[in-house]
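Can anyone check this?
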Amino acid sequence: MKYIVAFLFTLLLSINILCQNTDSLTIKPFYVLSGLGSDSTRIEEKLIDSLAMIQLVEEKNEPKIQMDEGLPVFTRTSMMPSFPGGEQKMNKFIRKHLKYPKKAKKAKIEGVVVVRVVVGKEGEIKKPIVKESVNPECDEEALRIIGLMPRWIPGNQGGFRVPIFYEIKVPFVLK
C-alpha cells in the first residue's frame, strides 16, 4: 500500500511540475482517494488541482485543510479575489467608514489591524478573524468595517470559483 501511495504522489508531483512549465495545458480538479500513509498519518480525500499538494495529516488531529461549503479554502489561486474597483477603492472604503475609537484616540494608539477573511466562491466575506491586533477597540472597529464591505470579485482556480483566505489591513493613524 505504501508503494502505491508513493507512486501516486510521484505521479501527481510530476503532473504538477509539467503543468507549471506549460501554459497550454489545463488540468481540471480531481479527487485523491483516502489511503494510509504510515502508522501515524493518513491521506485525506480532498479536492485538489495542479497547484495543490497531497497533505499528510496526523491521525489524531482533524484535517488541516479548512473547508467552506464543502470546498477547500485556498491560500493562493491563479486569480486572487479583489474588492470591486481594486485595492485603491478598498482603501478609500476603509477610510470613509473608519470611526477612530475614542479610547484609542485619547491614548494616541496607532497601528494596523490585520483581519483574515474567507472570500467565498460568490464573493461574500466570511469568517473574519483578527490576525494582528492593535488594541480591542481598534480590532472591533476593523471587524465592523469588514462587515460593511460589499461582495468581492471571487478568486478563481482552474476555471472554477473557489473560497480563499485573504488578509485585509485596516490602518489606524492619527492626524
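Reply from J.R.: I decoded it. The longest strand covers residues 111-119.
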